[in-house]
Design a protein that fits this description.
Layout (H helix, E strand, L loop, with lengths): L2 H20 L7 E2 L6 E2 L1 H17 L4 E4 L13 E8 L1 H5 L6 E8 L2 E9 L4 E6 L4 E3 L2 E2 L11 E4 L9 H14 L2 E3 L4 H9 L5 E4 L4 H13 L3 E3 L15 E4 L1 H12 L2
Parallel strand pairs: 3-4, 10-11, 10-12
Antiparallel strand pairs: 1-2, 4-5, 5-6, 6-7, 7-8, 8-9, 12-14, 13-14
Length: 260
């Protein structure tokens, strides 16, 4: 299958998953590791639906998913990286800012990605080498400095020991930029940066399923993705820090991160 055919599969599977999210009611959250790390039956149902649909079309596919510990080999021929509901805490509390995020990787290289927010009917997509799109229209990062842009960030709630560093950098970004936004769905924050709505997004620790699709979308929108140490953003299970967006804003934020 071509990358474009894979993208069509992702979009159709996410469309079905989005319908499940929108019909959700009586949502009960279960703790996974602590009170901030939760899962719902809808996370599981959306993930199972995506795995089923993608497996039907690509029988030898492997999966690296948030729920149910489905963490297959990332260097296989065909790998799908899935976060069935990014922004589960928002989902549980009725804050309609959550999405389905899915990326396709072939032999360790990201090739296609789709991130769908069903609540505002926005579908962000990208194919390697072909650009990034929002509902079929091309998007680009902004090339503005921090002083002319918003900054999106996450607080890495599952790792409270990072709070001082996180909020310290958030203050620096607030003082350097126009304002700071923390909306609770990293995949959507990456899309916000890719669409030029914000100059940069950062978070001190994310799982691969949180950022894989967004990474490709940002890069195909002309942006860059780095760790806070300035290195390349890895495609592995290490939970790195993430900084992504337009080059000017990313490089400024990296400089702020190094300041004492």
């Amino acid at each position: 299958m071509t990358d474009n055919e894979i993208l069509s599969l992702l979009c159709e599977a996410e469309r079905e998953g989005a319908a499940l999210m929108q019909e959700a009611h009586d949502i009960l959250a279960e703790r996974k590791t602590d009170r901030r790390d939760v899962v719902t039956e809808y996370d599981r149902r959306v993930q199972e639906l995506l795995i089923r649909r993608l497996s039907e079309a690509v029988p030898d596919a492997r999966f690296f998913c948030e729920e149910n510990d489905r963490h297959d080999d990332l260097h296989a021929e065909h790998v799908f990286i899935i976060d069935p509901i990014d922004g589960t805490m928002n989902f549980v509390h009725g804050l309609h800012h959550s999405c389905i995020s899915a990326a396709y990787m072939r032999r360790g290289e990201l090739r296609a990605a789709a991130i769908r927010n069903p609540y505002v009917n926005e579908l962000f997509t990208a194919v390697k080498g072909a650009g990034a799109f929002l509902n079929g229209r091309p998007i680009r990062v902004t090339d503005a400095p921090l002083s002319e842009t918003l900054v999106c960030c996450g607080t890495t709630p599952y790792d409270p020991k990072l709070a001082d560093r996180c909020f310290g950098l958030m203050k620096k970004a607030f003082l350097a930029g126009l304002d700071v936004r923390r909306e609770g769905a990293a995949a959507l924050d990456l899309c916000t940066a890719a669409a030029g709505r914000a100059g940069v997004f950062f978070e001190l620790g994310l799982s691969l399923w949180d950022y894989a699709a967004g990474k490709l979308i940002v890069e195909e929108a002309g942006g860059i993705c780095r760790t806070l140490e300035g290195g390349a953003l890895p495609l592995d299970p290490t939970r790195p820090s993430v900084v992504a967006g337009g080059r000017q804003a990313v490089e400024e934020l990296l400089r702020l991160a190094k300041e004492k």
